[in-house]
Amino acid sequence: MQHISARLIKSLSFSSIPGTTLQEIASSRPKGVAKVVLKKGKTQLFKDGSPMVYSGAVDRIIGRPPPRTGDIVLVADGTEKPIGWGLYNSVSMFCVRLMQLEEEATRDPPCALNMEKLLEARIDAARELRKSLGLPSANTNAYRLVNSEGDRLSGLIVDVFGDIAVIASSAAWVEKYKQEIEACIRRIDEINHINWRPSVEILKEEGINLSDLKEMRPSACPERTKVMENGIFYAISLEGQKTGFYADQRENRQFISTISDGQKVLDICCYSGGFALNAARGGAVNVTGVDTSLPALELAKENIVLNNMDPGRISFLRADATEFMKGALSKNESWDVVIVDPPKLAPRKKVLQSALGMYRTLNSLAMQLTKRGGLLMTCSCSGAMTQSGMFLPTLQGAASMAGRKITVLRQAGAACDHPIDPSYPEGAYLSNILLRVL
């Protein structure tokens, strides 16, 4: 008993003394902490902040028994000196998701090797950041609270829709720490409901048994809700795509409202009508939205009513994007402003080449439907496309196919509540480009 008490006192004292090293804190733990040792020449990448330790960067693992998925481990250089700590995965290509570097742990020992404390600190920091960005506000209550690597919680996304928090899990550790994450979110005054949305295919690669994945939406959590973004109301289905709403395009949708006055606008792949509604609010004389999803179009039509818009000026059609545009071309139709925001066409780098052709075809048709001198806002939410730098060259190829000339007026990404860690550029996924089409 005295031995256990001494251990406990030692652990508590180490966790509260500034300047305590990770190795000292780890040594104070009764069972110790396994150590993932990096290969020679790989250390600097992670010292510079890259949060994902790939299995190919690992030389050996020290610890008996070996760590299990979700366990806290030290990450060390070739001399076995810790450079940080993170969460281990025995199956994933991401062997460790780094949570703190040695210097950070020394400055903030209560969070060192303590996932519960770290979650509290990181989620609180994310909340304070959103407050500084003016979110939520009187006219916007749909926003991203936690953006994975951008908020230093790789694999965790939290979107807030009014009083509902939707948590998207894409890492094994998120599943392990469900209760702790939920407790942190419930501490936020305005949150009354939580809906868990596990990313099944990604979690399969993380070694998670799919039978263990149960969406945690208590019976009290509604299946639908209503939010406001920049003064426009949206009906949201929590059974819908992604977390239910694409908050990443918020600033781009608002921009559309500034260039739509007196214009005829076409919104291809409109989902629940975000761009179309902003165009109508901005004074467009006629707006047409096109999508293949019947549930999405039902939401879009509901949004017309929610915002007291004239159904004679804004309408939504169910059609395949390519077939609709070909049909419109055959009837010599054209629009002043065209928006193309397709689903993720290149979910992986290995399919990027085939996706380039789809992007080229879609945009070539859209350019032909844009009046000469008109504007085309075109998007890609495929990280593989954005990170490849091939989107603009693909658009130039589309212009050549269409026999049109384009100039770039604006380039944007996700809204400011979707921060990106520059040491992990793979976190950049959204491209939004405004073109003048001649």
From TrEMBL:
Belongs to the methyltransferase superfamily. RlmI family. GO terms for molecular function: methyltransferase activity; RNA binding. Signal peptide: none annotated. Its main location: cytoplasm. SUPFAM superfamilies: PUA domain-like, S-adenosyl-L-methionine-dependent methyltransferases. Keywords: Cytoplasm, Methyltransferase, RNA-binding, rRNA processing, S-adenosyl-L-methionine, Transferase. This is PUA domain-containing protein. It comes from the Eukaryota. Pfam families: Methyltrans_SAM, PUA_3. It comes from Castanea mollissima (Chinese chestnut). The keyword DNA repair does not apply.
